[in-house]
Amino acid sequence: MSAAVSVEKDLSATILLDDYLHLSFLDLDVEPSFHAALLGGLLYALQNVPHSVPATVLCPAAYLGSVFVTNRSAYENNPLDPNFPIIKSIIAHLQERSATTRFKVGKFNGLHITNSSDYLSVSLDTQPDLMFTSPGILLNTGSQRLFTKMIVTLKRHSSRKSTISNLDRTRHCVNDEFDFYPSDKTIWKSLRSTDISRLTRNFLWKCMHETFHVGTFWDNVPDLRHLAYCPTCAVPETMEHIALECDAPGQKRIWSLCERIWNLRFRQWPKLHWGLILGCALPRFRSTRGTRRLRGKERFFTILVSISIHLLWKLRNERVLEGKSVTNIEVENRWLSAINSALRRDQILTNKARFGSLSKSKQMVLETWSGVLQNEDALPDDWTRSKGGLVGIWPTTRRIGVG
Predict the structure, then answer these.
(1) Rounded to a whole number, what is the distance in angstroms from the first to the last CA of the chain?
(2) Which domain of life does the UniProt lineage start with (predicted)?
(3) Torsion of CA 76, 82, 83, 85, to 10 degrees
(4) What's the CA dihedral at 255, 259, 260, 261 to 10 degrees?
(5) CA-CA distances (angstroms) from residue 39 to 18, 86, 112?
(6) Would you state the pLDDT for residue 154?
(7) How many Cβ atoms sit within 10 Å of the Cβ of residue 254?
(8) Burial class (CB in 10 A: 0-12, 13-18, 19+), 154
(9) Model pLDDT, residue 29
(10) Taking the mean position of all CA atoms in its chain, how far away is CA 112?
(11) Residues 222, 214: contact at Cβ < 8 Å?
(12) Stretch among 27-36, 47-56, 157-166 having the lowest mean pLDDT
């Protein structure tokens, strides 16, 4: 993104911000984005236009008009905005100008640069002149929420090695499977997905940080080092081992059930890795032509994996801490019960009159579960209000007695 500046004969300047122009900003401490590019281009232009020359800013997006005209106070007093340093500097330049500055939105024919060698590297001074802007924000524009976030951002939190490792594993596993490379922010946001129950969200967050007392946690606890090993497999116990490698009843059975119900509707069950389980809310399934995302398929994958991994953890705790043993029949019935509970929860949450903005889209729920229900041919097209809708795998019951 760049800025083209032209000074007319009548001593007026036209600043053209066109997405075909490219500037490479040096030492700009903001996250790269379209809006940051627009702001950087405008700041570069203002620094090269005389203050006494009237200027007209031609921009392909309405963002600049919102920032500096209609909602200026909100942007000027929000230090949590990722582009806040550039915004403050631009406002200082605008107030320092003695001539008028106009913003105009539309499509304009600018200079077209197609060769990457034509990129222009420039340095921007984002330090605002305190003669023309306030050093902070106005207290009457803030709120308790804003001030709390500001205080939190000032605290430096040390990064855990295990967290960094799990974030990288999640990122690369998701990229290998779905050709999508999520940022740390995207990964953390996915752990708050409302497609996952609250308790399971908390569980996945702890998995990302490795806060559970398993494996190497017990190495520094006298007389309890034996707890670092899986009692079934006699190998060091990790969350990845519990999820994908343990030979105890439940692990293989649960994932085979996931694949079985997946194949009722879709073709191939993705190969699971620990990073993909942590990023279960980050799938990117696309149509055959690749033109659109299959949101229902993505949501169904998220629900299946999140429920399954949380159930595996519960079974492990019952086996190790309480000494309970479970059979494959019990595992299957508990898994089916959890999946059917998720289905019923989705049905209930489609009631917009009851839940308002927190309700689920009826169309999204239909796209998520259609094709995996029992006796679906006998159900109405809109089965979200129907009772007894269960997934299409019958639970196994234990026979009692002889014969």
Answers:
(1) 78
(2) Eukaryota
(3) 70
(4) 100
(5) 12, 7, 19
(6) 73
(7) 24
(8) exposed
(9) 64
(10) 34
(11) no
(12) 27-36
